[in-house]
Specification:
This protein has 3 helices and 9 strands, in the order αβββββββααββ. It is of the alpha+beta class.
Length: 167
């Protein structure tokens, strides 16, 4: 008997922590053939979903799958995300949560699922970028470090931390 992953337990724990503290839990996931989400909301092969009690119906966070129904543009959709595809769960309000490396699938897994086997190097290659936290510069400090270069991006607002994916 193989050992059960800790990931689904951690997902449930962070979700519970968010709801207990009045935060809105968000889940980021890699989208692939085994993921059922509205494709019009997928960006760069990833999707971020609000999984709060008020945004979902019938949320089930099982050991292998996160399933629920949610409204997108007023239309109810069934969502299904394999736990291996979840890359982060965090509170919208403060960015606190947990990031995960996507599950490692091998050529054997693909054959077991009835899919064509891919070569060994491709099967073991990472399938998603790593998440890192990037500190924001407070608005009042933005002018202090002005070195004369015109930055095309406007200064970021102070306060809420952001999550940036590094590829």
């Amino acid at each position: 008997m193989s050992e059960t992953s800790t990931k689904p337990y951690l997902l449930r724990a962070i979700y519970e922590w968010c709801t207990d503290n009045g935060y809105t839990p968000y889940m980021a996931a890699i989208v692939d053939a085994s993921t059922r989400v509205p494709m019009e909301y997928v960006k760069n092969g990833e999707i971020v979903l609000n999984i709060s009690f008020s945004a979902t119906s019938g949320l089930k966070m099982e050991n292998d799958l996160v399933r629920f129904s949610a409204r997108f543009g007023g239309v109810s959709r069934d969502i299904s995300v394999p736990v291996d595809n979840v890359v982060a769960i965090y509170a919208r309000e403060n960015g606190q949560g947990m990031a995960f490396e996507p599950g490692n699938r091998t050529a054997e897994d693909d054959v077991d699922n009835g899919e064509e086997a891919v070569d060994e190097q491709e099967a073991l290659a990472p399938v998603a970028p790593i998440l890192t936290s990037v500190p924001t510069q407070p608005a009042e400090d933005a002018g202090e470090n002005d070195d004369g270069n015109d930055d095309p991006e406007p200064p970021k607002k102070a306060g809420r931390p952001t999550l940036t994916r590094v590829k």
